[in-house]
Amino acid sequence: MSRTQASPRPLGSVGARRTVSATPHGIFASLHLRNYRLFFFGMLLSNIGLWMFRVAQDWLVLTQLTQHSSLALGTITGLQFLPILLLSAYGGAIADRFDQRKLLMVTQTAAGLVALVQALLVLTGTVQLWHVYLLATLGGVVAAFDNPARQAFVSELVPEAYLVNAVGLNATTFNASRLLGPGLAGLMIGVWGVGPAILVNAISYAATLIALVAMDPADLHRAPRTNGRGSVREGLAYVRRRPDILLVMFMVFMLGTFGLNFQVTNALMATQVFHVGPAEYGLMGTLMGVGTLGAALMAASRKRPRMMVLVGALGGFTVGMAGLTVAPSYAVYLGLLVLVGVTSLTVMTSANATIQLSVDPAMRGRVMALYMMVFMGGTPVGAPLIGWVGAQFGARATLGAGAVATGIATLAALWVLLRSRRDGAGADGPQHDRPDRDTMTA
Questions:
Q1: What DSSP assignment string belongs to 28-72?
Q2: What's the DSSP call for residue 22?
Q3: What share of the chain in percent tops pLDDT 70?
Q4: DSSP states along 190-227
Q5: What pLDDT, in 10s, does the model give residues 102-145?
Q6: Residue 257 has pLDDT above 50, yes or no
Q7: pLDDT surpasses 70 at 427
Q8: Residues near 206 by Cβ (< 8 Å), separated by ≥ 6?
Q9: Which of 87, 262, 266, 414 has the fewest Cβ atoms within 10 angstroms?
Q10: Could you give the CA distance from residue 269 to residue 390 in angstroms, rounded to a whole number?
Q11: Residue-wise pLDDT tens digits, 69-86
Q12: Which of the four pLDDT bands, split at 50, 70 and 90, describes residue 51?
């Protein structure tokens, strides 16, 4: 068993120097807190660079390093996420053991250096496909330790009453950048090539580092730290005792593994079906970002996550994917991407907030690591598989496969949820070992 090194602060408490209201007000309530405001804008700038990189890397692989190879693109995506599958549990244990702010400084610096190496290779004209494979793997190793710390760090930035709002605003930064990044990347690629777009990503990591350095540690709501062996096993055992968390993780696994492969599917549809250029390809990401940004703002305005909203959003995603599969034109495809963006982001924010609000704070890093592992760790299987489907059956089949998989997950989750409501699920037990009933009701 692990030992805690510090006592947790009372829920809703704040640092020694400032006090805030226990009740958030408005969509942007968490931005009234200085530490969170710094984190929000730092991540916004960094994520814009990340989305520019994703578009630039895909275009580099498809048009310069291969002859429109969907398998190569799927392999790169898989290599980015394979370390998350293998290492995230250890990343979560480290996040629960060490100062998350300092840990993020290390991981963000490492990610920036990996991005800088790739930018220099492209700008000097020496990049080869194996370079991209290797750097994708290294980036995945960094992400395996960065993601759990970053997810759990949100609960240190704000009191519990602000947590749902902060999770929604976090999604807003990610999706506002998705709105801006792909379009900027498409324009930059068209004028200067892929190298400058990748270089912007490397530079953008400085924004997060500056924000982390500028924070006031006294205003952080630190969870108790763990010490000793067996912390990974404790996290696994904790999740096994929580059927509500297992259900949420099942849904996000199916979504992440088979549904959210737009890094592959959009590139294939752009080059093989609609035969458009880099600006039009970037617009695909931008339009999807419109939907996800809208959903993120709606999530920030909710007081509590609800399971039926999560299941309904997964069903809506399935419908959107089915529509993309048979979209007759580029314009119709763009319109459906908005729907897919809204529903996918609603699933992600509802799942994230449900888990963060219902776990013991001392276990949050490890549980969020397992959450990220099942959400993103299935990509090493899903992305190459989707790439193979595209190579064998065409670009539209990649979308159809995602629709079938998420449809099965929606029906299974709905059956479990309705059965649990009928049977009156919610056994007695320690409060931190079971969800808040509000998070599990329809």
A1: TGGGGSHHHHHHHHHHHHHHHHHHHHHHHHHHHIIIIISSS-HHH
A2: S
A3: 85
A4: HHH-HHHHHHHHHHHHHHHHHHHHHS-GGG--PPPPP-
A5: 999 999 999 999 999 999 999 998 999 999 999 999 999 998 89
A6: yes
A7: no
A8: 112
A9: 414
A10: 10
A11: 777 877 887 788 788 778
A12: confident
Rounded to whole angstroms, the Cα distance separating 183 from 52 reads 8
pLDDT category of residue 329 using cuts at 50, 70 and 90: very high
Say which amino acid occupies 34: R
Q: How far apart are CA 75 and CA 140, in angstroms?
A: 13
Residue 259's nearest CA partner among 60, 104, 409 is 409
Chain centre to alpha carbon of residue 103 = 19
Per the structure block, which two tokens stand in for 109?
């610096």
CB-CB contact of 164 with 355 (8 Å): no
Q: Which residues contact 183 (CB under 8 A, 6 or more apart)?
A: 279, 282, 283, 285, 286
The overall average pLDDT reported for the chain is 81
Q: Are 439 and 305 in contact (CB under 8 A)?
A: yes
CA neighbours closer than 13 Å in the CB half-sphere of residue 191: 8
Asked if 312 contacts 227 with a C-beta cutoff of 8 angstroms, the reply is no
Band of pLDDT at residue 41, cut at 50, 70 and 90: very high
Q: Which residue has the tokens 């404790």?
A: 234
Instruction: Give Cα separations from 367 to 104, 120, 245 (angstroms).
Output: 18, 37, 9
Residue 405's nearest CA partner among 323, 324, 318, 341 is 318
Q: Look up residue 206 and give its two tokens.
A: 């400085």
Q: Are 291 and 338 in contact (CB under 8 A)?
A: yes
